Amino acid sequence: MRMSLRRKCIVLVVLISATAAGADSAAMRRAPSDPAYRHWLAYGAGPENIRYSSLKQIERTNVKSLRIAWTFDTGDAFPGSEMQCNPVVGNGLLFATTPKLRVIALDAATGRLRWTFDPNRDVKVITKTRNRGVMYWEPGNRLYVVARQWLYALDASTGLPVPGFGPEGRVDLRQGLGRDPETLSVSATTPGVIYKDLLILGSIVAEDLPAAPGDIRAYDLRTGKLRWSFHTIPHPGEYGYETWPKDAWTYIGGANNWAGMSLDERRGLVFAGTGSASFDFYGANRAGDNLFANCVLALKAETGERVWHFQGVHHDIWDRDFPSPPNLVTVLRDGKLIDAVSQATKSGHLFVFERETGKPLFPIEERPVPVSDVDGEATSKTQPIPLAPPPFTRQRFTEDLVTTRTPEAHNTVLERLRALRNGGHFEPPSRQGSIIFPGLDGGAEWGGTAFDPETGLVYVNANEMVWTLRLLERTLLKERATGRELYTQNCASCHRDDLRGNPPEFPPLTNIGSRYTESEIGEVMRKGTLRMPAFANLKGEAVEAIATYVMTGHDTPAVAGGGAGYPFGLKYRLDGYLRFSDPDGYPAIEPPWGTLNAINLDTGKITWKVPFGEFPELAAKGMTNTGSENYGGPLVTAGGLLFIGATDLDRKFHAYDKSNGTLLWETVLPFSGNATPATYEAGGKQYVVIAAGGGKSGAPSGGVYVAFSLPD
Fold it and tell me: Which of 363-372, 523-532, 647-656 has the lowest mean pLDDT?
């Protein structure tokens, strides 16, 4: 082990002293209202989605005394399953979901099960699914949750579906999108927001075509009736229509708000970040800037009308979704507090806007970027870059950043790097292969950011992994095609030609026959799931041929149903979602591979940064403080603490001093805590709870909620 590398990792604990201006701003900042921040009634704590609590029974001096108050094992874990839920608490009950999407209500003080609701009654095949929480309507004592394509309304006291909310207490999210519902894969993994009598919701759709459009929609809380839709792929006559081909609204999908939203109740404004258009990595059939993909949107909550927007990536071919809910924050300027909205990005930037107008509070510059030379592609010549705050991740994978973990690793990675295109994080996907850094999972990810209204600091955990993007030509199929040819055309972008997949997002299909029958595989293909489209364009024989190929590895004779030409005009597909690793599977770049960051919104400067996470086997050899991939967000409290799990491999749950990043307490969870924690008060005691579900980066899967409190 190289000692110089170890010293580098330790030195990367950067504690940048707060400036005098920053200290003054903290003193002048509006004191948070206790009633507004003492509860955890919604995803991200409340409508502002800032993950802040004014509870301070647990604080800097006593956090080392935390112990487990209760645990609840859902019993729903299965190989590869995850649990990303941020629980909500109301009326003495903690409401959460399980790896199999059951909804549970637990006694908030004891963890005892009160009721459960199972949405799997009509499901033949339970596949890997995700859910980040439920929506709680306190005045109506109702919960709302999405399982697959269904939006359910449940009685919060009993868990029973509410009569009168659509047919049988549920609404089909595939309906009302202007396309054949049977051909669409539509769900929602992140809760929406509740405004008056409306539930406003985004969606998760397929990342390759065919895919549903990403309309943002509002439903009547009582009846489930659709009240308004905002077309993120504009229809004729709507603002932004000219930024697409004229018929794109009929066939393009995506541009969806999958990561959640926030709400300014007083102003009646809802804020949402959107993702890229489908197909993610080649856009020859969607020439133009593609509004409202990759946008921060401000909409009137009552009607869905656009108030303002900002597009963070023009004509995205890098899957640079806005990955987390916008945060409603306050920024001090010239002695006055300004209501603002901040948005973290996968590229490691933070955009900050005045809330009512969308005016940037820090300068944004349109910079020239590399132009694609792939046949049919027409990339934007410029992209917007904020000049402050500075990026919270490194921005370029240069040769001086190649891993030095071992000489062999260094030399192998360096040789591969020199064979790839590497023009920065807007280097287009290419036939040769291109570096994308930060990688496809950030920078920031769905865990998002926490904001401390006492100090004006935003906290964000980040990944610093290198990925590669390479385009392959799609096979031109005739009306008849073999199972292998059909698989290559329709499935290999995600699951790769060799069936090894791209975990954790796209599972391997090797040995899938030991887990599913041929009919079950066909069922999933026809209906789709999460990012996987519903392949309604494939006829029965074609589906059977693909299922036979992935189960046995044997090709089949050509069958009808392949279709002619490139699907939806797409000449190219992706050669898999590929992390750039060294020969031993570790990241190709020098540490830190994950960081935790505090950014001052008043000054636009980074206040502190620390490596976040470890590889246990490397730490055992003396290579510590490397950082690791991390998924799940932070929670900040008036007790001076920042709580976060998130680290994939070491299974730790941490408490940091929010002012300087000093680690004050940590414990090992039964499974990785890839979720955002919540804190609440029950019986006069403060609890902190996190879902420990694991399942990422090869970690074991579980399904346990763990709550902590101080000793009596």
Answer: 523-532
What span, in angstroms and rounded, lies between the C-alpha atoms of 37 and 27?
19
Helix H segments across 191-245?
A: none
For the cut 50, the answer to whether the pLDDT of residue 280 exceeds it is yes
SS3 93: strand
CB 403 within 8 A of CB 389: no
**Is the Cβ–Cβ distance between 644 and 64 less than 8 Å?**
no
DSSP for 604-632, written as a single string: TEEEEEEE----HHHHTTT-------B-S
Q: Is the C-alpha dihedral spanning 230, 88, 136, 262 positive or negative? A: negative
- Dihedral sign of CA atoms 549, 554, 559, 565 in order: positive
Asked if 202 and 446 count as a contact pair (C-beta separation under 8 A), the reply is no
Q: How many Cα atoms occupy the beta-carbon half-sphere of 310 within 13 Å? A: 28
In the numeric block, which tokens belong to residue 580?
Answer: 């750039």
Q: Give me the half-sphere count of Cα atoms (radius 13 Å) on the Cβ side of residue 518.
A: 13
Q: Are strands 295-300 and 170-172 parallel, antiparallel or unpaired?
A: unpaired
Which two structure tokens, joined as six digits, stand for 483? 């199972």
Cβ-contact 36, 52 below 8 angstroms: no
Contact (Cβ atoms closer than 8 angstroms) between residue 687 and residue 709? yes
Question: d(Cα 52, Cα 39) in Å, to the nearest integer?
Answer: 10
Provide the token pair at 379: 């990339």
Helix, strand and coil in the chain, % to nearest 5:
15, 30, 55
Q: Which amino acid is at 14?
A: V
* Residue carrying the six token digits 């908030």: 108
232 backbone φψ class: left, alpha, beta (φ>0; ψ -120 to 50): alpha
3-state secondary structure of 128: coil
What the block records as the tokens of 521 is 């595989």
Q: In whole angstroms, what is the distance from residue 314 CA to residue 366 CA?
A: 11
Both tokens of residue 499? Answer: 């069936």
Helix (H, G, I), strand (E, B) or coil at 67: strand
How far, CA to CA in Å, does 44 sit from each of 195, 224, 257, 322?
16, 24, 16, 16
Q: Output the CA torsion sign for 213, 217, 221, 225.
A: negative
Angstrom CA distances, 518 to 481, 497, 525, stand at 19, 20, 11
- Taking only the tens place, the pLDDT of each residue in 115-161 is 999 999 888 777 778 999 999 999 999 999 999 999 999 999 999 99
Q: How far apart are CA 313 and CA 322, in angstroms?
A: 9
Summarised one tens digit per residue, pLDDT across range 5-23 is 333 433 344 444 333 344 4
Question: Residue holding tokens 């900002």?
Answer: 310
Q: List the domains of the chain with CATH numbers.
A: 475-565 (1.10.760.10)
CB within 8 Å of 33: residues ≥ 6 apart = 54
Looking at residue 161, the DSSP 8-state letter turns out to be B
365: nearest Cα among 384, 345, 344, 390: 384
Q: How far apart are CA 194 and CA 198, in angstroms?
A: 6
